[in-house]
């Protein structure tokens, strides 16, 4: 009887040790290599859709205190820092509210950034846009938060086709990505000239009229200029995607987006 009890207690201890080691390994993997990230909003359509699931490459830019869960890394500045490139899709920590955001890096330190009539100007030069058809989606609640999309052809009844004009933008250096247009009269389509301070970056969403980004100050829900310390990593590839309210709803999986590279 005593032997059976000791064996049972030993089994429990071994199970606890296995679980603890698994948590340690998962924590190290998440801290040093890749962090899972789920897309909760439509600010990066059509590059990223609500329900896309990806891993963020944390090795790309080095490590800061925000590389650890709960910002627990005892790091000042960045270790093994790597310079992000214009056009990268980046996950970063919001400098005020502590939320993780994902946007496209548009302005590097020292750049000037301005929007004029919905067209991006970098360092005084117009960034070329080429019409690339129309992005279509069903006007329905999307993702666990049940967000409704914004439509250029609105108002649209539930179940109708919601459209946005799609263009290909070519950044200096030749990198290209798709952007969407919904409204030609929004505040974000015509801005002042922003000068990116040293050690900071300027981010924008690809869904230009539906993104709280560096065009908006932190006081009104935007992100303003983002210090380098707040960068978490680069998004390179979508691993999985679900259009439903839950990842368990297999009939809503978008199989064409599995393992899709992010441009």
Descriptive account of the structure:
By secondary structure, the protein is mainly beta. It has 2 domains: 1-32; 33-261, Ribbon (Umud Fragment, subunit A). The chain is 12% helix and 32% strand. The protein is built from 1 helix and 15 strands. The chain has one helix at 2-32; strands spanning 34-38, 52-57, 89-93, 100-107, 112-116, 119-122, 125-126, 129-138, 161-170, 176-181, 194-195, 200-204, 226-227, 231-241, 260-261. The strands form 3 sheets. Strands 1, 2, 3, 4, 12, 13, 14 and 15 form an 8-stranded antiparallel sheet that branches. Strand 9 (161-170) and strand 10 form a beta hairpin. The radius of gyration is 21 Å and the shape is globular. The protein starts with a helix and ends with a strand. The model is unreliable at 21-26 (pLDDT under 50).
